[in-house]
Amino acid sequence: MFEEVGTTTEGDLVINVGPQHPATHGVLHLVLTLNGETIKNVEPHLGYIHRSIEKMSESLTYRQFIYVTSRMDYLSSHINNHACALTVEKGLQIEVPARAQVIRVLMDELTRLASHQLWWGAMAMDVGALTPFFHAFREREAINEIMEETCGARLTMNYICPGGVMIDLHPNFQRKVKEFITLFKSKIDEYDEMVTGNIIFQNRMKGIGLLSKEDAISYGVSGPAARGSGVSCDIRKLYPYEIYGSLNFEEILETGGDCFARYLVRFKEMRQSLSIIEQLIDNIPEGDFQAKTKAVLKLPKGEFYSRVETARGELGVYLISEGGTTPYRVKYRSPGFSNLSALNHMSKGYKLGDLVAIMGTLDLVIPDIDR
Amino acid sequence: MTNEALQETITALIPDTQFETGAEWLTITTDAVAIKPLLTALRQTAGLDFDYLFCLSGVDWKTHFNIVYHLSSTTQRHTVVVKAKVNRDNPEIDTVSDIWRTAEFHELEAYDLFGIIFTGHPGLRRLFLTDDWKGWPLRKDYEDPINMIKL
Amino acid sequence: MFSLEGITDAIYSWLNSTFNPTIALLIEFAIVVVCVIGLFAVLGLVLVFMERKVSAYMQIRLGPNRVGFKGSMQTMADTLKLVLKEGLVPDGADKFLFNLAPFVVMIVAMLILAPIPFARNFQMWDINIGVLYVTAVSSLSVIGILMAGWSSNNKYSLLGAMRSGAQIVSYELSAGLAVLSIVVLTGSLQLSDIVNSQQDGWWIFKGHIPAIISFVIFIIAVTAETNRAPFDLAEAESELTAGFHTEYSGMRFALFFLAEYVNIFIVCSIGAILFLGGWMPFHIGNWEAFNHVMDFIPSSVWFFGKVFFLIFLIMWFRWTFPRLRIDQLLNLEWKYLLPISMFNLLLMTLMAIMGWYF
């Protein structure tokens, strides 16, 4: 069914990793060409969870199409919704109330934390340590409960709508988030002790999957994966949206370019997200949580592009409107898709076991790649 | 660099460049034939340094296709949008995967969903859909009686 | 005082007084076979349950807790399920080797049980080259694994089997050298002699630092030999799905699974015999009163206590460490463990000659 992969010479082993494989965390299909244990070529075959979200968006109204994107990168569904809402707001030139902006940013950062927690657990599991996964899920559960209370859902929240957020925060929100902050502050040090310092883990990570700064830019890698190579690409810093411009947080940059650098970036980002939440949780302004919008939204003719920083990198929403109630064309520039394009380059010459570590540090979410 | 300055620099570089105004970013419209020299110039000219192709999308305008390149520079922090018009009957355009490696994947996506052939691409194949899929789903005239429900 | 020795003696004398010696011997064989199979099943159940509870404790979960008292019957239920499942043979597999492989692994595990002294004078076969026998037979299990990997007609299985082969062959060396260092001290290959030589203290205490080094090397090497994490490359779940037993299902899979746990038991009992005195109670030199109190605890309890302590240690490794990569694994063996254990053996020999141990 598949064409010949790269140049296979005698003694090469062509092996299918996926679509069902424990390391791909979804339905990614990689055709590997191995020489012994050494990787010669990686060819991704996608589409096992392709749902044509771009085509679907063309027949959904501006209120509806936002929620399909929750299913793209399901681990940062808030941020996906946020990106779409920003595009629509850009078109309609709606001013989002201050309260809604703070709520959105809070939710974004909670989502980012939850996503990074899951990544941390899954990453450790990929390199063979099963225990951290359960520890990560214990803390993630606290975030999920906060989400459930306010948004009514735990994974695909569909909380953000054009003009603000759907409903106001739950009365328990502030208390629970504060509880979570105190809980997680002690746990994150535990995470550090449990995995980061482990000598086997460091040996598995250091010097593996090298990606130079130039290559990272050329391959369009974004998010923590690119920041591990020293590329400053945090949209929250470079092109601030909502209230990110007025917040005090650091863009984490590491220059190693290897798996360990990417690991450290993500790990330190958890602390940054925590500090953003801390800054905001006591300063949620009073007021409307939603701007007044018409029942049926009609964007003016034109093209709108908005960029946000998801847990995996830069998500771009490119929306073309012909003036109707539905978009003419929506293109999602998903971070996973571009990051995946660097996988072949990054994993050539490393061992099969390293591929798993590299994929782990890229933090691929397959629905995000396939859309 | 601001949009105006950018426009001046690019005009100085390639005199007959057409610009669209009114959008957030400076937009250049061009033809499929002229795309390669233009993008190469944008990538390589010092001061422009568009080294980061962050989005490549196809658009079906029923009369023609557009390939939209969103370029930005990680050193200069400016952004430009390039729109290339592609003939609908004979959809062919030069690949830019040798300028930006990420284009390799994005072009596969555009090929898979729009049927636009990127000449010079290292391995054009169906990326999302099965190898024997008929048609190009994101084209506006794509019909699928089973999976598409017309409202 | 409870003693397994009494039971065996009673059976032995009763059989010999009732039947003629040949028939008595045959009946003894039958009893031993039944006992070994029974031990196998019980060990499998107990160790799987223990592993699940230990991992649950480390992973802040409860573990199995529905079937039986505190979930103790869970492994029984799982085994029942595996027995009832269809054992599939993949297309293009070498049927004969595919079916043979789990039994090879299993039989090897059974064979090593023979010379192990479970309690005072409770041993199936007190062979005078016990240590040699154990090291020789245990290296056979790699053949079963290679068979399984090759015959499955699956690339993952093949990769897993190849990894396993490289790993077991390499780590056999340092395990062997670690074992040898105790043989040097004892001057005997017979396991009962080794245990008896620890009458006045276990080798890990008597042998000073070299004995501790050999003990550590031994534990690392046997963890690798039994394909346990952090050396579980042969079945590295996130890389090779299940490695050499990817294609196995039903009872054939259960045999591999069982053999893994029995192998852990065996290597831990070898470790306990060599370094921790086997069934020998904790004795200190010539403290008569203390030694007497210790003697009061049955020898079988001492043996199983030590073995299960070592098993717990190995389980602890599994649930805390990430996995090594194949080249790191081989580097660890050939560049670190092997030179250290060779040097250690020299040191040990010097110690034995000069009599620098208690």
Summarize the structure in short.
Helices cover about 45% and strands about 10% of the residues of chain A. Chain A is of the alpha+beta class and about 375 residues long. In chain A, the strands form three sheets. A three-stranded antiparallel sheet of chain A has the order 1-2-3.
Detailed description of the structure:
The complex is a heterotrimer of chains A (371), B (151) and C (358). With 371 residues, chain A is α+β, with helices and mostly antiparallel strands. Chain A is built from 15 helices and eight strands. In chain A, a hairpin with a 2-residue loop joins β4 (160-161) and β5 (164-165). Chain A is globular. The two termini of chain A are 23 Å apart. Chain B has a domain at 3-95: NADH:ubiquinone oxidoreductase Nqo5 subunit (Beta Polymerase, domain 2, 2-Layer Sandwich). Chain B is built from three helices and seven strands, in the order αββαββββαβ. The relative contact order of chain B is 0.14. Chain C has one domain (86-354). Helices cover 70% and strands 0% of the residues of chain C. Chain C is built from 15 helices and no strands. The longest helix of chain C is centred in the N-terminal third of the chain and has 38 residues, at 21-58.
Furnish the topology, listing elements before pairings:
The complex is a heterotrimer of chains A (371), B (151) and C (358).
Chain A: E1 12-17, E2 29-35, E3 38-45, H1 53-58, H2 65-68, H3 77-92, H4 98-126, H5 131-151, E4 160-161, E5 164-165, H6 173-196, H7 199-205, H8 213-218, H9 224-227, H10 235-238, H11 259-281, E6 302-309, E7 314-321, E8 329-333, H12 335-341, H13 343-347, H14 352-362, H15 366-370
Antiparallel strand pairs in A: 1-2, 2-3, 4-5, 6-7, 7-8
Chain B: H1 3-13, E1 18-20, E2 26-31, H2 35-44, E3 52-60, E4 64-72, E5 79-87, E6 92-94, H3 103-114, E7 117-119
Parallel strand pairs in B: 2-5, 6-7
Antiparallel strand pairs in B: 1-2, 3-4, 4-5
Chain C: H1 4-18, H2 21-58, H3 74-84, H4 95-112, H5 130-138, H6 141-151, H7 155-186, H8 191-196, H9 203-206, H10 208-225, H11 237-240, H12 250-275, H13 288-295, H14 299-320, H15 326-354
Helix pairs in contact in C: 1-2, 2-12, 2-14, 3-12, 4-5, 4-6, 4-12, 6-7, 7-10, 7-15, 10-12, 10-15, 12-14
Pfam families (chain B): Complex1_30kDa (PF00329)
Domain NADH:ubiquinone oxidoreductase 30kDa subunit (chain B): 29-143
GO molecular function, one term (chain B): oxidoreductase activity, acting on NAD(P)H
